[in-house]
Design a protein that fits this description.
3 helices; elongated; four-stranded antiparallel sheet; about 15% helix; Encoded protein; alpha+beta
Length: about 170
């Protein structure tokens, strides 16, 4: 279930939360009008989120790089090594903390395109279908609250470098 994405100069950035569709709940409670469609998904806090980086296009090459890459492509054996030698970026999928990205705020590249930074509003649970028509004492007490989080990703050596909370609510 993807609800948000972000774009940098070279990448589409998507965060897939660890949720699963609950078919029995959909076939019974949802079709009878007892729950919302959102309640047909189960959040699994034991599984990681998946951070997807999808290249937006191929980097521009100078004529010298094109000639060099053409020679390298002729001598390479596997398609993966050919793509790497030709300077083409491949999609990247990384494990992240278990959370739901409800809104992407900003994303950008830095350090010459080696790092991708994503700022997003995240929640650590699927609690967005609370019934606010009848709040009770403790309703707004402790529990999962939206937080602004920053993810820093190294795309040269694909890995999640850091995840930090920028603000608390």
């Amino acid at each position: 279930m993807l609800t948000e994405f972000s774009v940098t100069n070279d990448w589409y950035v998507l965060v897939a939360p660890p949720v699963a569709f609950n078919g029995p709940r959909f076939a019974t409670s949802y079709l009878l009008g007892d729950v919302s469609f959102a309640e047909c998904f189960d959040f699994d806090a034991t599984q990681p989120s998946k951070i997807h980086l999808v290249p937006r296009g191929q980097p521009k090459e100078t004529p010298h790089e094109q000639a060099s890459n053409n020679h390298l492509q002729q001598t390479a054996t596997s398609p993966q090594s050919q793509a790497k030698q030709a300077g083409r970026r491949e999609p990247v999928v990384l494990d992240g903390p278990p959370l739901i990205t409800s809104s992407s705020i900003n994303s950008y590249e830095c350090d010459g395109g080696r790092l991708v930074v994503l700022d997003a509003i995240c929640e650590r649970d699927l609690g967005f279908w609370k019934d606010v028509s009848d709040p009770v004492i403790g309703y707004y007490g402790p529990g999962a609250k939206p937080e602004i989080m920053r993810f820093t990703i190294d795309v040269q050596h694909p890995r999640l470098l850091s995840t930090r909370i920028l603000s608390h609510r």
